[in-house]
Every structure is written in structure tokens, then in C-alpha cells.
Amino acid sequence: MFFPKKSSLDLSEKEFKEIGYQLVDSVAHLVNNMSEMALTTNISTEELRDKLVDYTLLDEGVSAKDLFDKTTQLLINYSLFNGHPKFMGFITSAPSPIGILADFLGSAINPNVSAQILSPIATEIEKQTIEWISSFIGLNINYGGLLVSGGNMANFTGFLAARTAKIPKDFKEKGFSGLKSKLIVYCSKATHTWIEKAVVLFGHGLNSVRWIPTNTDNRIDEERLENAIKQDLKDNNSPFMVVGTAGDVSTGAVDNLDALAELCKKYNLWFHIDGAYGAPAAALPELNETFAGITQADSIALDPHKWLYAPLEAGCILVKNPEHLTNTFSSRPEYYKFDGFSPELAHNFYEYGMQNSRGFRALKVWLMLQHSGKNGILKAIRKDIQLSKLFFDLAIEHPNLEALTQNLSITTLRYVPTHDNNKNKWSNLNYLNSLNEQLLGRLQKSGELFLSNAIVKKKFCLRACIVNFKTSKKDIEECIDIIVKTGEQIHFEMSSEYI
Ligand SMILES: *Cc1c(COP(=O)(O)O)cnc(C)c1O
């Protein structure tokens, strides 16, 4: 038999270094010069596909160095950069440089953080990361949990823990057929779409969600919530869980968590908080009141890849009594002998969540928390909020902008033309909605800045969410100019069609 000396998969140490040093140079340049670059490409899907023609799967391999040279250019030229200082769409943070390096190191070690015996130090690091995130937002460190891919998975995990905790133990054997009444979950109309996925995927059905209306601040109306619970009890349904939102995706509103906690206590319901975006802001002393009640949650979802600046992916679920996680997810098949060196202490993360094999997500978060320190992170979050307020204030001052909402680091606004002679026509809701929708589309393609949208009181708005330590005051001022200039142009085009 012939065994080649070197596998085609391997790289010599020399090659690895050569490619690696070049890569570090390119990435360092990218990270530090992004503000000068177009935020996104605007070339079509067909053209993008054409950029890949060289990369049809070949029979024989090619040089790793050539591959990296080409691929680095390909990605730099045709990506959307959510680390760009003027990226304010949806909720994705700029990746912390230390997180970028951490992913490289983590991949090299490649621990499987499913079982302690497979990832001795990585497991300890993830446990500590969970403790630190908990204590950062003011929870006692007995909360347990784990890192997952993002907010959806974190919320799903909390949802399943709630179900285990609040319904009869024989559910595991009998499933829904063993239940005498319908399980009901309550959340506000502003709740993220994960809840729909959860009730569909986990077999509850969409009818098991009570969408409670919000008040004018986009926060859940607690009186209507309590009435809905009472009605369900009267109808012999089984309320089991209330979802509060700490930072809703559209406007950043935080529900009255204290009031929700009280209601949950009164009716013996699981209190889950979806803080995927907003929860890290609970660490700011000036927001104590906004987040009052957060420490009473049974479970909290929070995304380090949002307001803790981790590169994708990193979500996190924290549970007050982590036994509800192991009761939900643990299974001990005969082929897993994971008791390890000290069975009584073995912490096997596969028993806490949905994944079996798990990557080392914690490393990038753990390093970032140490590198910035608590004060550094507070400062960054505070600055995002201040910039968002500046955005709002500049919009208020501008005669062609209408500022609509400002909560946490999310501002919504829209462009409004001021042509005296056609005032009624141009202030018509449909006209303005269509104008702002086109405006958003054009801004997104421009490569200059990136916003997303929200509907506030039927008004189509531009929405800026700042979770980016690279964004500056100057960026916000320039955004205002770009929005107004582009809005004017679109109004000009639309109104000439209109006449
Ligand atoms: C972003 C977000 C989610 C979903 O999180 P992913 O990380 O995208 O899965 C859920 N809820 C809220 C409030 C969010 O902001």
C-alpha cells in the first residue's frame, strides 16, 4: 500500500504561517479602514454568481495561498459589512476585533463543548462566561445556562424549559395526548417572530399564543394581559408562560418587567424575558428603572452577537434554576460515558440544550468581557444610546424629517417633504409611506449607510439601531444629510410623476 507523506488536507507549517500572516494583514486593514469602503455591494445575484465561476468543484486541489488571496478579495469586494460605522439595520453589532481573533484560536483548539471530558478548559470558560453575563446584567450568579447560535435558539430553549417546569411530569412519555387542557403562552404584539416558530415547531399550534395589545409606548398592556389570563382560566385552558420583551425589535421598548413578574407570581406562570437585543443595557445604572424586574425572570434570552459585540454567532439563555434545563434536555445513552475525572462535578453542556456537538462560542465572549472590562462595555453601550438620541434630536430639528420613537439605541424617523403649495397631497399617509419605502430601498443599495424599517402608527419609518463601537457623532450627522438628500430626490421624482 502506498501512503503519501502529506495529506492533501494538510498545510505545512511554513505555508500555514505565510497564508496566516498575509490573512492577518488583510483582516487588520479591513477592520481599520472599513469606514472608507462601500458598506455593501449593489451588484445583482447573477453577477455575484458569476464571480464564483472559478470555484466549480475541481477534481484536483489548488494552492491554498491562491485560494486565500482570491477569497479574501472576493469577500472584501462583495460583502455587506455590518461592522461599518454606518450600518444601523436590524440588530447586528460590529464584531469586536478580539472576537475575530478568538474565533481563529477557538477553531484551532476545536474543543467539542458537549461534554466536560472532551473540553476540559473550554467547559470551565463557558461556565464562567455564563456567570459573568448573569452578573453583568445584575442577576445572581446561580443562574445557569449556555451559549447557543442566537436569539431564536435562546428563546426556544427558555420556552422548552418553561414547559418542563410548568406542566405534568408525564409529558415526556405521553406528549400532548396526556394533557387535559390547552397550554397557553402570553406575549405582546411586539414580540419577535420566534414565538410563532416555537409554538409551531414544538407542537402547540398558533392558537396557543395570546397576542396582548401594546400601549402607546409599544409596551405590553398589563391589564389586558391579566384579563386574558383570567379568561383562559375560566375557559379551562392552562396558562403556563408569559414572555416579556426587553428591547422590542421595532422600537426598542422594554415591557414593564416588574409588573409582569408580579402577574407571573400571582398566577404561577413561568416568566421569560426576551432580551435578545436589550438585556445588556440592564447593566447601566441609569436604566435601573427601565429594567426593574429583570432579576425575577425564570429565564432570559440575550444575544452576545447583538449588544455584546461578538462576531456571529452567539446567543445565550440564562435560567434561574438550571435543573429545568437538564430535566428538559438531558439523556444518557449507553454510548456516552461522560462522567469524566470527577463525575459529581462533570458539567456536560449537551445536557443543557438542544445541541449535541457544540463549538467554542464562549471564547469570543469571554475574551471580550475581559478585554473591555465591565466599565468598557458600559461605556460602549452608553455611547450607542447617546448616538441614537442624537439621531433622534437631529431628526426633530430638521424640517424635512419626522422623528417618531427613541428607545435604548433604536430611533425611528421618516422623510417628510415641505412643499407649501401641495401640502395636503404630500402629507398624505400613502404618499409618505411609499416615499419612505422607496427611500429605504435606495439607501440600502447606496453603500453609504444601511437602515431597516419599522411601522409606527401605520407610518412606514426608517429605523436606525446602533450597536456599533465604530459609529461616531460625525457618522450620525452624515446619515441625516444622506437621508435628506436622497429623500428630496425621491420626492422630486415621485411628485413629478404625481402631477
Ligand atoms: C434579534 C432578536 C431575536 C432573534 O435573534 P437571532 O439572534 O436573530 O436568532 C429575538 N428577539 C429579539 C427581541 C431580537 O431582537
Please give a handful of descriptors for the protein shown.
seven-stranded mixed beta sheet; PyrdxlP-dep_Trfase_small; 3 domains; Aspartate Aminotransferase, domain 1; binds pyridoxal-5'-phosphate; 12% strand; Aspartate Aminotransferase, domain 2; four-stranded antiparallel beta sheet; globular; PyrdxlP-dep_Trfase; 499 residues; single chain; Aromatic_deC; lyase; alpha/beta
Rounded radius of gyration (Å): 25 Å
Assign the CATH superfamily of the largest domain.
Type I PLP-dependent aspartate aminotransferase-like (Major domain)
User: Bound small molecules, which ones?
Assistant: pyridoxal-5'-phosphate
Number of strands: 11
Uncertain residue ranges: none
Provide the spatial order of strands within the biggest beta sheet: 1-7-6-5-4-2-3
Helical segment count: 16
What is the global morphology? globular
> What distance lies between the first and last C-alpha atoms, to the nearest angstrom?
83 Å
What structural class is derived from the secondary structure elements?
alpha/beta
Percent of residues in β-strands? 5-15%
CATH topology category name of the largest domain? Aspartate Aminotransferase, domain 2
CATH level 1 class label of the largest domain: Alpha Beta
CATH architecture of the largest domain: 3-Layer(aba) Sandwich
Helix content: 40-55%
